[in-house]
Design goal:
Blueprint lengths: L6 E3 L5 E8 L6 E6 L2 E5 L8 H14 L6 E5 L5 E6 L4 H11 L2
Parallel strand pairs: 2-4
Antiparallel strand pairs: 1-2, 2-6, 3-4, 5-6
């Protein structure tokens, strides 16, 4: 399995996941890779942080991790976001993401 360009390991052992989020999509889904980011489609509109909460909720369910394992590092008001993920190793997360790539 090739390394995903959207995923890297932080100095403290946490994982950094770069996302490009498309709000107001028809369905919640991983839409593939866009450059070095994972494209994520969400039905939620980008209003009052709802899309940020939807990103965390979707990935938490996908990875079977608590929402507290996800921290939005950057991109609070942007479609380009970076998440810090704890509680899972890089190989397991990579396998989950690869399985859901179209």
């Amino acid at each position: 399995m090739d390394a995903l360009p959207c995923l890297e390991t932080g100095s403290d052992g946490s994982l950094l996941l770069r996302l490009h989020v498309q709000p107001r999509a028809a369905a919640n889904a991983i839409a593939g890779l866009q450059g070095d980011m994972l494209k994520l489609r969400l039905t939620t509109p980008p209003v009052d942080g709802k899309a940020n909460k939807a990103v965390v909720a979707y990935l938490a369910k996908l990875c079977r991790l608590p929402k507290s394992a996800f921290t939005l590092k950057s991109g609070h008001q942007s479609r380009c976001k970076t998440l810090i993920i704890t509680g899972i190793d890089v190989q397991a997360l990579q396998a989950i993401l690869c399985h859901h790539l179209p």
